[in-house]
Amino acid sequence: MSLACEPRYLRVHERDNVAVVVNEGGLPAGTRFADGLVLADAIPEAHKVALTDLAEGDAIVRYGLTIGTANRAIRRGGWVHEGLMTPPDAPPLASCPLATATPNPLPALGGYTFEGYRNPDGSVGTKNILGISTTVQCVAATVGYAVKRMKTELLPRYPNVDDVVAITHPYGCGVAIDAPGAAIPIRTLRNLAQHANFGGELMVVSLGCEKMQPVRLMPAGALPVLEEEPSVAVMQEAHEGFGEIVANIMALAEKKLARLNQRRRVTCPAADLVVGLQCGGSDAMSGVTANPAVGFAADLLVRAGATVMFSEVTEVRDAAHLLTARAATQEVARDFVREMAWYDEYLRVGGADRSANPTPGNKQGGLANIVEKAMGSIAKAGSTALMGVAGPGERVTRKGLVFAATPASDFICGTLQLAAGMNMHIFTTGRGTPYGLAMAPVIKVASNSGLAARWPDLIDVNAGTIATGEATVEDVGWEIFRLILEVASGRKKTWADHCGLHNDFVLFNPGPVT
Ligand code: CA
């Protein structure tokens, strides 16, 4: 029997009384493992098996933590699924330990570089893109029309520019623009406009009468500078119809393209990377293969001096007490608690709680509840100290591991991580999604070999080899780290970029619509 066919389960922590069956297609009842465990039930791939007899009320332990209590007796070898367990309450925020277990720094990792576009403000781009910001949805279709023409008529004349990207969105008017929640979408759009991959070339298209005027979108001080070099096209200032509107936008774009075309890649230390981590369409394998491998790569990046962001509030909420303990200082831990508390309240007002997070696909994939999903999710964050916390859409300035608060929604998280300054994105998936972003490369990591085999032209890294024993977490972690440097240098293309799969920008707007 080959290594890949032998019955195998993965146990994460020595205290665990459940493990995950990793064989593709699952295993039938009666299957005997090398250690003598015999399956009492058929168990689907990535689902849990009881390693001991469990009585009603017993804690079900995975990742060394209680992920639920048995609501009836489960015998050794039995299938431990969602219907048999009751999830615990979320850890209370008031009693989270503050910086009580800050990890010591890992040894520095020198000598790793990539070829990036260095900007005057010190940030480094991984692509060379003309970014066109918009103040309101009213202009989106017109900008889309102009961008299509730019790509065919202008871009071939500026071969050093990779792409033209319009940041279109539903915000900007018909919204309570002075409500407290408005700060989040506005700063998101402002920080997107100044993304490292846009090379400091600001371009804004405005309608004219909208609530979010260009001066509100852009930071104080930026627009006076722009008066010498116009960077805003206002549609309602045109007097000769659509033709003039489009011509104005095209003329402005061409000035920016000419300057962007002068940019050249230079050798930059890995410390200039700002890597955003995310998962989507997770399964129970994500937490033992893809996410730990990304966590190992995250530790390498932190050792190399880079910034690594993890996000997705509802997927870390149940591990809040572990992350506050890991904070570098009590202040960082309190910042983390503040973001969790804000989101608890946001969900409460909406009549929901964190249990709304797991999807039918997550559950079919073996994730019983949000606690199990959270424990698998934070494996992405590696093992280093939490150095900082940013609110939704805020720019991250710290090096090391940072929590950037975002919803778990793939598109909202990706958009907010871009606003935070992300120049490389690592995305793990078990169920599979063709996710991609126009503004920064997205490396997709599969949690299981079945997905990697079914989607060879969508998945960039297969972490399923960890489950079959063909590779270790460290092997795949190094593979991801090296691939990040290659992709950031423009030497390799992700599958999403190869196919041009770029999802929409989706803003997080907790404020009222009018
Ligand atoms: Ca997500």
From TrEMBL:
<dbReference type="InterPro" id="IPR007392">
    <property type="entry name" value="GD_AH_second"/>
</dbReference>
<dbReference type="InterPro" id="IPR048332">
    <property type="entry name" value="GD_AH_C"/>
</dbReference>
<dbReference type="GO" id="GO:0019698">
    <property type="term" value="P:D-galacturonate catabolic process"/>
</dbReference>
<feature type="domain" description="SAF">
    <location>
        <begin position="16"/>
        <end position="86"/>
    </location>
</feature>
<dbReference type="InterPro" id="IPR052172">
    <property type="entry name" value="UxaA_altronate/galactarate_dh"/>
</dbReference>
<dbReference type="GO" id="GO:0046392">
    <property type="term" value="P:galactarate catabolic process"/>
</dbReference>
<dbReference type="InterPro" id="IPR013974">
    <property type="entry name" value="SAF"/>
</dbReference>
<dbReference type="Pfam" id="PF20629">
    <property type="entry name" value="GD_AH_C"/>
</dbReference>
<dbReference type="Pfam" id="PF04295">
    <property type="entry name" value="GD_AH_second"/>
</dbReference>
<dbReference type="InterPro" id="IPR017654">
    <property type="entry name" value="GarD-like"/>
</dbReference>
<keyword id="KW-0456">Lyase</keyword>
<protein>
    <recommendedName>
        <fullName>Galactarate dehydratase</fullName>
        <ecNumber>4.2.1.42</ecNumber>
    </recommendedName>
</protein>
<comment type="similarity">
    <text>Belongs to the UxaA family.</text>
</comment>
<dbReference type="InterPro" id="IPR044144">
    <property type="entry name" value="SAF_UxaA/GarD"/>
</dbReference>
<dbReference type="GO" id="GO:0008867">
    <property type="term" value="F:galactarate dehydratase activity"/>
</dbReference>
